[in-house]
Here is the input.
Amino acid sequence: MSHLIALVLAAHDTSRSAMTWLLVELDRQPELVERLRAELAVARGALEYEQLGGLDLLERVIKEVERLHPPISGAPRHVVEPFDFGGCHVPAGWRVYYSILFTHLMPEIWTDPERFDPERFAPPRSEDEKTPFSLIGFGGGPRSCIGRGFARLEMKVMAATLLQGYELSVPSGQDLRYDYTPTRVPCGGLRVRVRRRK
Ligand code: HEM
Here is the structure.
């Protein structure tokens, strides 16, 4: 049972959270939606698996959502061996917490960190490659997310399908402050108006 709960939380709630913030960001940036549609125009109708790899802008947008709206804000680690870090001694047996949220907003790594800017992932900037653990929305090291590839692919397919076939808008007046359930979602959920494109 606990495995089932873990999988629902790890796989479903996280992906739901990421897709929610993707829709919020797309609604805020109509010109980005047009650029994404232009990228998708090369594929008429249903996308083939091979074409998904060529959607560079969509990939950057999904990464920027992961950076700015990480579904999980961090995770605990049990200290096996003592170590020193930033002038502090951390004894064995302690629990430490690594913060995804904090890392994703570090000005040492990211230019203008609060700004939604997918181009930060394009060469020559490639800000996510500055350190091995810059973009860690899926964790890092041996216990990082086993579903990372699947989740990114799933988001790409969902976003591409929505952008190709539908006009989406987020009605104003919604409470978009963060709630942790434990993944990050808007306080009052998110209502989106969906119309089929002509
Ligand atoms: C946007 C979607 C997702 C995000 C943001 C996400 C995020 C994460 C993060 C941050 C961790 C590491 C936690 C830690 O450091 O202790 C993790 C672990 C894990 N994720 Fe995901 N995840 C996502 C989707 C998925 C999917 C689709 C699956 C399964 C199909 C999945 C299965 C797992 C499992 C089983 C672990 C535990 C791995 C271990 O402890 O060795 N996740 N995920």
